[in-house]
Amino acid sequence: MTANDRLDIASALLRVSLGVMFVSHALLKLMVFTLAGTAAYFESLGLPGLLAHATFAAELVGGVMLVAGVRTRAVALALVPVLLGATWAHAGNGWVFSAPNGGWEYPLFLTVVAAAVALLGGGRYAIDARRPTRAAAPELRTA
């Protein structure tokens, strides 16, 4: 297995797991907390309730796009503010996400993962890899 093979596998693992996490959190907002309940929670934090709907949509659509590997870098980067918002929302709860109301380390870790996916791109196993790019020069890859 070459270094590029390992890089492609690592990129796929990170991208797909992050995408599944986003989809699962979107479905949690929809099916468990409900969108109305999520909006009420956002409002309790002093945020507009409509932001809960936008967050749900970003998590669901962005998660599916990450799993498929569509516009991977842009999607991962666009989801960083969602994760920073989640980090902010949980900042007062302390460390460890299993604490009451969840801690801040899990959303912060996911922020770093999203940044890594944005830097790595989707890899060879993403739909992005099968579409022609506009770039004239091939992507540079390191071992």
Brief summary:
Helices cover 66% and strands 0% of the residues. By secondary structure, the chain is mainly alpha-helical.
What can you see in these coordinates?
This protein has 143 residues and is mostly helical. The protein has one domain (3-126). Helix content is 66%, strand content 0%. It is built from 5 helices and no strands. It has helices at residues 3-32, 35-44, 50-68, 72-90, 105-120. The longest helix is centred in the first third of the chain and has 30 residues, at 3-32. The chain is globular and about 50 Å long.
Itemize the secondary structure elements and their pairings.
Elements: H1 3-32, H2 35-44, H3 50-68, H4 72-90, H5 105-120
Helix pairs in contact: 1-3, 1-5, 2-3, 3-4, 4-5
Record keyword descriptors for this entry:
143 residues
Going by helix content, strand content and strand pairing, the class is mainly alpha
Largest sheet properties: none
Mean pLDDT metric:
91
- Tally of structural domains: 1
**Helix-residue proportion:** 55-70%
End-to-end Cα distance: 12 Å
Helical stretch tally: 5
